[in-house]
Amino acid sequence: MADGLVQARGLRKRFGDFEAVRGVDVDVARGEVFGFLGPNGAGKSSTMRMIACVSPRTDGSLQVLGMDPDVDGPRIRARIGVVPQLDNLDAELTVRQNLQIYGRYFGLSRAHVRAKATELLEFAQLTDRADDEVEPLSGGMKRRLTIARALVNEPELLLLDEPTTGLDPQARHLLWERLYRLKREGVTQIITTHYMDEAEQLCDRLVVMDGGVIVAEGSPAELIERYSTREVLELRFDPALRPEAAVIAPLAERVEELPDRLLLYTADGEHTHAEVARAGFVPLSALVRRSSLEDVFLRLTGRTLVD
Predict the structure, then answer these.
(1) Would you kindly state where each structural domain of the chain is located, as residue ranges?
(2) Sign (positive/negative) of CA torsion 193, 198, 203, 207?
(3) How far apart are CA 87 and CA 294, in angstroms?
(4) Which of the 8 DSSP states describes residue 138?
(5) pTM of the model
(6) Percentage of the chain surpassing pLDDT 70?
(7) Cβ neighbours around 280 below 10 Å, total
(8) How far apart are CA 31 and CA 20, in angstroms?
(9) Which end of the chain is less packed: N or C, by CB atoms within 10 Å?
């Protein structure tokens, strides 16, 4: 990828005898939003930390902004922004001071960081809270401030680890709008998220990781087309009248049996629902929906909880 900001080949990360990342290839193009999806322990955070130049790779090649993190770590870190999973703001400083003091770490002049702080306060919709201390702010406000702080050095690459975890829907959608605005301005973004709707909304391309390896790669639409069907029919039955999945399987491309319902993966949910009725099965409720990235994710990584 000629215009790639991040290029990894055979990237590996070991912690003692445990190999967290087992030979992944990644290309992130300038201007795109790239996502890492995967269950806990899949290797997402370890990969992100190597890209952020805070954790050395064990093996493989890695180029970030055309440089080798092992040699040019400080130069790379000066040109990227990092939004950690947990906010690490200075709660005793004001909102504006958090931006200005952080900007000074990059050697920026006082006049420059004052002007940049004013710009970022408007971007994060925090202008009216500029002189308030951080501690009383809501979770959404703190998250917006953390993202604004990561932009103080005008990064070419922004790394976001679970950017909207713990936020209410309104705050999540406001952050999505801010991140989309950054994309329009040409800021390349790499995101890890557990929210499949977030990945569908934000990511141009993404990889699904499991067990330290990449198990799928593509745009959200490509992955849904490749690993799922156009629609899903969800059927809930009276437990005493619920058919076995094997009995109903010929009516769909794939049937998944859950404790409370059957999922029938099909090209036409309404037609399949009619076929179910003609076969003599009467559900308590039926829902036809479009396949989503979550269907792909669960098919590739399983439904077993990973701690």
Answers:
(1) 4-219, 229-291
(2) positive
(3) 27
(4) -
(5) 0.91
(6) 97
(7) 7
(8) 28
(9) C
